[in-house]
Amino acid sequence: MSGVKLVYFNGRGKAELIRLALAYIGLEFEDVYLKEKSEVEKLRSDGHLLFQQLPLLEIDGKRIVQSGAILRYLARRGGIYGNSNDESTRIDELFEGTRDFYGPLLGMVFRPEEDVLKDAKEKVLPRYLPAFNKVLEETGSGYLVGKSLTIADLGLIETLLVLVEYLGDQILTGYPQLQSFYKNMTSDEKIASFLLGPHRHPKNDQTYVDTVKRILY
Question: Which of 98, 97, 84, 79 has its CA nearest to residue 149?
Fold first, then answer.
């Protein structure tokens, strides 16, 4: 295999954070979009999808599945996974928290948008915004762990980007640490470049939903 390839659908889903991580650690990559059911079936029959799921990252002569495994691989390779076992453990803890925070948003467009956003405002924001604001207040560095960006920070900014996109930045009112975090992360040169670049995907739309359903169901 030559080059780095991320195999997924032409949308955000579970691949967008991988795209952000690849861009942040400076790895050029190609988005490979699946469009037909036969393409996924071939990947499965060739044994490339161990658990029959996407995304799939082709890198360094290997194929990696499971989004969490892919992201940790990239974090280790890019030096954004902490400087000690204790730091890596804390990063894991907070990173998994960002995935729980982001999880309900994966239903966007697959469920009525108003239902997803209603659940987010009533159940998700009150649970996670105070928690992450508190962590940032305790570290005092502007980052979730230590004094530099880690994969946990990328996981949090991905979630906040989607929430602000749909609900506006007023959702961060009353959470000063998160307001500063959002401003600093979106001003970061590498993140800002990704957000304006070709690998950043727009909101999932009905075309994306129809493609995913046609291929997987």
Answer: 79
